[in-house]
Design brief:
Blueprint (H helix, E strand, L loop, with lengths): L2 E13 L2 E8 L2 E7 L9 E6 L1 H11 L4 E11 L2 E9 L6 E5 L26 H14 L1
Antiparallel strand pairs: 1-2, 1-5, 2-3, 3-4, 5-6, 6-7
Length: 139
């Protein structure tokens, strides 16, 4: 394992496949804009912002709540995998992803990787969080 960082983020906007997210990576804060998916790819732009601004945005503009997780950077066969281990309402959920130069890039799949869920709506963080919130409210 290369490193682990604590992440806390919230979704400010989600419309027609476009998203705006605010996130803390340990103490570093960012604002991220994601474009709609084209296949399994999407544009993503990330900007550092003052931590006080990020905290205010999380509190005021993230009505769906925040997601907390540990992100483990794991080296495997010349690539770095991002393995997210969720806490809070999504505790017990673990995702692994890899960023590639293109969706046709060849890579070695680690034997610890489970089912492929890319593109499946039910496995998107916002949908998982909403489902867990409903379950939690129902008691």
């Amino acid at each position: 394992m290369l490193q682990t960082v604590a992440l806390r983020d919230g979704l400010i906007s989600d419309h027609d496949g476009r998203k705006i997210r605010v996130r803390f990576y340990d103490a570093r804060a960012t604002l991220t804009v994601k474009g709609p998916r084209t296949g399994i790819s999407r544009d993503e732009f990330e900007y550092d912002i003052p931590p006080a601004d990020a905290a205010a945005m999380l509190e005021r503009y993230c009505p769906g709540g925040t997601i907390e997780k540990s992100r483990h950077h794991v080296a495997h066969a010349g690539h770095v995998w991002f393995v997210d281990e969720f806490r809070g309402l999504l505790a017990g959920t673990v995702f692994a992803e890899i960023e590639l130069a293109s969706e046709h890039a060849v890579f070695a799949r680690p034997d610890w990787i489970g089912r492929e869920v890319t593109g499946l709506r039910e496995f998107r963080q916002a949908n998982l969080l909403q489902a867990r919130q409903l379950m939690h409210a129902a008691g």
